[in-house]
Amino acid sequence: MIVTRFAPSPTGYLHLGHAFSAFNAWRRARDVGGRFLLRLEDIDPTRCRPEYADAIQEDLAWFGLDWDGPVRVQSQHLPDYSAALDRLAERGLIYPCFCTRADIAASAAAPHGPDGAPLYPGTCRHRSPSERADRIAAGERFALRLDMTAANRPNLDYEEEEIGRTICHPEQFGDVVLARKDTPASYHLCVTHDDAIQGITLVTRAIDLKPATDLHRLLQALMGWPSPAYAHHRLLTDDTGKRLAKRDKAVTLRSLRAEGISARTIIQRLDYQ
Q1: pTM, whole model, 2 decimals?
Q2: How do beta strands 164-167 and 157-160 pair?
Q3: How far apart are CA 215 and CA 96, in angstroms?
Q4: pLDDT digit of tens for each residue in the chain (273 aa)?
């Protein structure tokens, strides 16, 4: 049975890009009698708001999308992600990093990863256990990074719809952060964990997230989690060709509803853009 999901972060109201992604996942499941799940990725307490979480469910229901089972709210499952981090730590695959973002940005000739951020130069990777323990005991802030040198696996691949077997290169992300003090688990860890325990068989999401699949496939391999198939769809853009985004105040579903535009009209518009 096909199982898809829509997993927004409640940091604002849903816009047309979200609607397009949610409708894609919902239709892929419903067309073949499968299951469609809703997940709220609200790990970051500094940006996520309860009112947006409520609005997401309200807007999806108005849009005509139903989901199976209860909504999984990530902030209610922090022990799950801590347990996954503990498993990686037991195998020596993560380490504490005391560098700030400014430290990394200032690193000379730092290359950049697929997301455009500077790659971590590995400053803290070889610190001794005693130094790490002393700095943590002294109250220094730190993040937990994946030791890509130790963790990487050769010949990883995943199945991409309409393309087929796709080779992974997670090393291009460097030693990624898997947890911070203010964010107890990263998007990358949480999304792969939840896709596994929820039995997701097909991940449908926008093409801008495709590079992250390489890293997600590595985490799946390290943790013994199954690898779903992936289908990365096009991005919706505005009249200038710029992708729709919350930060740019993209038109929201609730503003369209307030204008009297029906869900059916929006669906027709999404189908034929």
Answers
A1: 0.92
A2: antiparallel
A3: 19
A4: 999 999 999 999 998 889 999 999 999 999 999 999 999 999 998 999 999 999 999 999 999 999 999 999 999 999 999 999 999 999 999 999 999 888 887 775 557 778 777 789 999 999 999 999 999 999 999 999 999 999 999 999 999 999 999 999 999 999 999 999 888 999 999 999 999 999 999 999 999 999 999 999 999 999 999 999 999 998 876 555 555 555 545 688 999 889 899 988 888 877 644
Q: Which helix (H) or strand (E) holds 226?
A: none
The strand pairing partners of 233, in sequence order, are: 206
3-state secondary structure of 3: strand
Using alpha carbons, select from 270, 166, 156, 260 the residue that is nearest to residue 217: 156
8 A C-beta contact, residue 176 and residue 154: no
88's tokens: 């990686």
Rounded CA-CA distance 170/218 in Å is 7
Query: How far is 247 from 233, CA to CA, in rounded Å?
Result: 21
- Token pair for residue 40? 């709220």
Residue identified by tokens 């730190």 is: 142
Q: Confirm if 210 and 166 have CB atoms less than 8 A apart.
A: no
Query: How many angstroms separate the CA atoms of 26 and 74, rounded?
Result: 20
Other Cβ atoms less than 10 A from the Cβ of 134: the count is 12
User: Nearest-5° angle of CA 189, CA 30, CA 192?
Assistant: 5
Distance CA 150, CA 28 (A): 37
Cα–Cα nearest to 150, from 191, 92, 236: 92
